[in-house]
Design brief:
This protein is an alpha+beta fold. Among the domains are: 152 residues, no CATH class; 101 residues; 121 residues, no CATH class. The chain has 29 helices and eight strands. The strands form two sheets. Strands 1-2-3-4 form a four-stranded antiparallel beta sheet, with helices on both faces. Strands 5-6-7-8 form a four-stranded antiparallel beta sheet, sandwiched between helices. Strand 6 and strand 7 form a beta hairpin. Helix 5 runs antiparallel to helix 6, helix 6 runs antiparallel to helix 7 and helix 9 packs parallel to helix 11. The radius of gyration is 32 Å and the shape is extended. The relative contact order is 0.05.
């Protein structure tokens, strides 16, 4: 229950924020006159001076008077921090932070601000404060992301990824966290994830930093660029600081030139060929990167002037939390620091070890050959999860692997943590069957995740990619298993079939389902007696509607269009295409889509325009090649 004094203060804050400054000042003064020894009036005057008059000196004087009457007034301490936050007088901000750490030890705001003050001076000193803030407010993505970023800079990448995963589970669109994780993924050589995260960052916040991340990551879609950069990463691994494309390229050239030195002992010509080849690869890679970036046209908003922070959201007392209604994120195993300024553990203070791979010459030479034959499969070995996993299903997948690993190691399973109590007896009975136990121990998650609001599901397959069963989770705990041999009751079989269909529908939305649905509706309209085709034409691009109607006035063209009911969907990112054939394997038609709408049609001999016919042959050739992959 909120106290009367807090209610008074909140009411006065509203008056100040609404611009009713004089009325607020009179009310605050009346509180002081009525109760000179009560802190509320001075606290209200402090807020009027800070948010209304923008007079920091007067505001601080009132804050000090407030604390004189009530040294434990959390609102006053928080306002004191806000007064000097971002100013040159860090000592005064630190004073109020220390008061908050002393008298409001359960508030995450104060350790976070202390960490921010120490961050520029000493990351190791700042880290325990950010950790404490993330622990006190486990639902705050900013605090978890900040601690994650500090841990990454200190070389504790595993801890950093765990906390960043938790931060993005809490708020997947937090711009700073997504940008940081995109940069880390790029610096660790996980280029596929870096590209996905960079695009997500640009969608979340269309600014210069997000655009830089996209420009940085996009060229790695080319296998040669990705190969060269990965090799460059090996040579610059011991060096600190941000790893940029330029540094990776320099590392590639200089590193392989050093490796070419032994070739000169064989023959000067062989050595020169090796050095020239390395340089040529560097130049070609640079040209390819520039060509790919040149295709990008990103209109980025200019950075806006910073808006003055209003203290109200920070000072206002938060509503009481309903613990029973909040699902806590998966706890991360770590030691809690209870002191105000605890040192990092001995292990955390040790510098990161130098990657020994840079000294193994044969391994690097083999890597040059092997990388050239590899596709970009960097996401496969990323600690058993990808960015899509973080958006949903990561905690369920973690618990699945916990159960599986326990079975592999013949360890006892802490069922209260990872298996629902109602399902544990049935699970224990299932694991008594050697065939099912072996199937569970040899299974992996596919990354496909389904959430129906109450229950969550993961697809599980074996190492050859064959579907084994579906796992059902509730509150992140294993709740049931569906599949052949796992639940052979009629209800179980029906539920298994229903879930498989739901997975297909969920995964099929981005694979041409809507394009095919629109095409079928357009065909049905022109096959019927519908004279105006109004509904069908809403699925046709405005610029193409008249041309398409003229095409359908030709009976031969119309009949071929209606009869082509076999579809093959291809997406080249700029446009989407349906290759359409009839049951007699006649000449295919090509339907071009943009934003799920039909924007053009190509067919053999459909147009007398040579350019249209040439485009038809080009697209058909490309689609046949794509379809053969």
């Amino acid at each position: 229950m909120i106290s009367t004094r807090v209610m008074k203060f909140e009411a006065l804050m509203k008056l100040v924020d609404n611009g009713e400054l004089e009325q607020a000042r009179e009310i605050a003064q009346s509180y002081v006159e009525a109760q000179p020894r009560n802190f509320v009036g001075y606290l209200c005057l402090a807020y009027v001076a800070f948010a209304g008059d923008e007079d920091k000196v007067a505001a601080e004087a009132y804050v000090e008077e407030t604390l004189r009457h009530d040294p434990r007034c959390e609102e006053a301490m928080r306002l004191g921090v806000m007064i000097w936050m971002g100013s040159d007088n860090a000592a005064k901000e630190k004073y109020y932070i220390e008061q908050g750490l002393r008298y409001a030890s359960r508030e995450a705001f104060y350790p976070y601000r202390m960490g921010t003050l120490l961050e520029s001076r000493n990351l190791k000193e700042a880290a325990p404060y950010f950790e404490k803030a993330a622990g006190l407010d486990a639902r705050n993505a900013l605090y978890a992301g900040k601690y994650s970023n500090v841990m990454y800079q200190l070389g504790k990448k595993k801890v950093a990824r765990d906390y960043m995963q938790r931060a993005l589970n809490l708020e997947p669109t937090h711009a700073e966290n997504v940008q940081n994780f995109a940069q880390w993924s790029f610096e660790d050589g996980h280029f596929k994830i870096a590209r996905d995260l960079s695009e997500r960052a640009l969608q979340t916040k269309h600014d210069t930093e997000s655009a830089r991340l996209v420009h940085q990551a996009v060229p790695t879609s080319n296998w040669l660029v990705a190969t060269v950069l990965r090799i460059g990463l090996i040579f610059i691994a011991p060096f600190k600081g941000r790893k940029t494309t330029a540094k990776m390229m320099l590392g590639f050239v200089l590193g392989l030139w050093i490796l070419c030195i032994p070739l000169f002992f064989i023959n000067n010509l062989v050595g020169m060929i090796g050095v020239t080849t390395v340089l040529a690869l560097g130049v070609v890679t640079s040209l390819i990167s520039k060509a790919i970036r040149a295709k990008l046209t990103l209109d980025v908003e200019s950075p806006k002037a910073q808006v003055k922070q209003v203290a109200k959201p920070v000072i206002k007392a938060p509503p009481a939390k309903k613990v029973a209604e909040i699902q806590p994120s998966k706890p991360i195993k770590r030691e809690q620091n209870r002191e105000i300024n605890p040192p990092l553990g001995k292990k955390a203070m040790q510098p990161a070890k130098i990657n020994l791979k840079i000294f193994i010459v044969p391994a690097i030479i083999l890597a040059v050959i092997g990388f050239g034959l590899m596709e970009d499969n960097s996401a496969d070995d990323y600690d058993s999860y990808s960015y899509d996993d973080m958006a949903g299903g990561s905690e369920e997948a973690d618990n699945f692997f916990t159960i599986r690993n326990s079975l592999e190691n013949e360890e006892d399973i802490a069922q209260g943590d990872v298996i629902d109590e109602s399902f544990y007896p049935a699970f224990k009975k299932l694991m008594s069957q050697p065939k099912l136990k072996e199937q569970f121990r040899g299974s992996y998650t596919t990354g496909e995740y389904l959430d129906d609001g109450e229950l969550q599901y993961l697809k599980i397959e074996d190492d050859s990619g064959d579907l084994q069963f579906l796992t059902e989770f509730k509150d992140y705990k294993l709740h049931d298993i569906y599949g052949t041999g796992w639940d052979d009751t009629e209800a179980g079989k029906a539920r298994y079939t229903e879930l498989l269909q739901a997975f297909d529908e969920e995964q099929g939305i981005s694979d041409g389902v809507l394009e095919e649905a629109h095409m079928k509706l357009i065909q049905a309209s022109f096959a019927s007696n519908d004279s105006d085709h109004k509904v069908a034409l809403t699925m046709v691009g405005e610029d193409f509607q008249d041309t398409f109607t003229d095409m359908m006035n030709d009976d031969a063209v119309k009949n071929q269009f209606i009869a082509s009911t076999n579809f093959v969907f291809i997406d080249d990112s700029d446009y989407q295409y349906l290759k359409m054939t009839d049951d007699n394997d006649g000449e295919p038609l090509i339907a071009q889509f943009e934003d799920k709408n039909l924007v053009y049609m190509y067919g053999a001999d459909w147009s007398e325009d040579d350019e249209d016919q040439a485009r038809y042959e080009e697209i058909l050739s490309d689609l046949d090649w794509e379809d053969s992959l």
